[in-house]
Specification:
Rossmann fold; five-stranded mixed β-sheet
Length: 321
């Protein structure tokens, strides 16, 4: 039976709430309201729930202090605010401090990419992959459906260090209804192809699978990989999955050429000496104020299904046979 799609935030927070009943080490800090599950956590565990208000810098510092006292901390806010508004605090109180002291702080950012489509560029988040990748000791986790998001909970509690969970605000179709990916490997191979492999993260995995399906209908098979852990994936296994391809394509709902998924893959290809050419596809680096359906906005910035198909046409012709 195929499970019904749910919001990443809700399923993950429910996991936190269930675990808080049996694990006194768990503490929740929030800079936002608006979720019924948050209300339940606050009602059930008032001594281990703090709402700091619209004060993300304070959110990070309080979380770091609690972690130093031995708590496993979950901190929650809208994605652009929990990354950009408090970036120095994340750098000093989490990334830097975790170099010398054990701590476990998990930043839950809701609203990755264009998922707040009606709120415009202030609430949309195209920079978070770049920013959080730049911080040593941080794990960057970017699930594509609620099943992956739900299964990240144990990974967060069992692994030390600061982490950033990049959640979509919309209810997305279920991808992993048959098999749950291995959280410790950090990626999942959905399809194997002939010459080209699409490597996507977050929402763009849905787009990659649709692109692959369309190409398959025309007789062309491309690989599809979901890279949901952008920092702590198994490098050896990823190399093995990619080494047969002559063309790789990165797909991200973030600015192209600004240090995100594409930067990670350019470095990976160089260090592993893979004989493959990378085409990096992402949001055209500019702020736009148009509102509309997500698919329509994606076509405007170069990451819609048709835009990707058009880009692949020229890329395919440039590859060696």
């Amino acid at each position: 039976m195929t499970c019904q799609p749910r919001a990443m935030r809700d399923v993950f927070l429910e996991q936190v709430r269930k675990a808080m009943g049996g694990d006194q080490r768990l503490f929740f800090v929030s800079a936002d309201f608006g979720s019924p599950v948050l209300d339940k956590i606050r009602a059930d565990f008032p001594s281990r729930f703090v709402n700091v208000g619209i004060a993300e810098q304070n959110l990070i510092n309080i979380s770091a202090g609690l972690a130093l006292e031995g708590y496993i901390v979950f901190a929650y806010a809208i994605a652009p605010f929990i990354t950009m508004r408090c970036y120095e605090q994340a750098r000093v109180s989490l990334a830097l401090l975790s170099e010398v002291r054990p701590l476990n702080v998990n930043l839950i950012g809701v609203g990755a990419g264009y998922s707040y489509v009606v709120s415009g560029p202030t609430h949309q988040c195209y920079e978070d992959i770049t920013l959080m990748r730049a911080l040593p000791n941080f794990q960057l986790l970017s699930p594509a459906d609620h099943i992956t998001a739900e299964n990240l909970f144990n990974h967060c509690t069992e692994n030390q260090g600061p982490k950033y969970l990049r959640f979509d605000a919309q209810v997305l179709p279920v991808i992993y209804d048959q098999e749950v990916p291995d959280m410790e490997i950090g990626f999942y191979v959905h399809k194997k192809g002939d010459r080209i492999c699409l490597i996507a993260t977050g929402y763009l995995l849905h787009t990659a699978l649709e692109v692959a399906e369309r190409l398959s209908g025309g007789g062309e098979e491309v690989g599809v990989i979901d890279l949901f852990n952008l920092t702590n994936y198994s490098a050896d296994q990823l190399e093995a999955a990619l080494k047969s391809y002559t063309g790789l394509v990165s797909l991200e709902e973030g600015f192209r050429g600004r240090g995100g998924l594409d930067s990670m893959l350019f470095e990976f290809i160089a260090r592993r000496r893979l004989q493959a050419t990378l085409l990096n596809l992402g949001v055209e680096p500019a702020y736009r104020f148009e509102l509309g359906p997500r698919a329509e906005l994606h076509e405007q910035v170069g990451i819609g299904v048709q835009s990707i198909l058009n880009s692949l046409r020229g890329f395919r012709e440039s590859l060696p046979m």
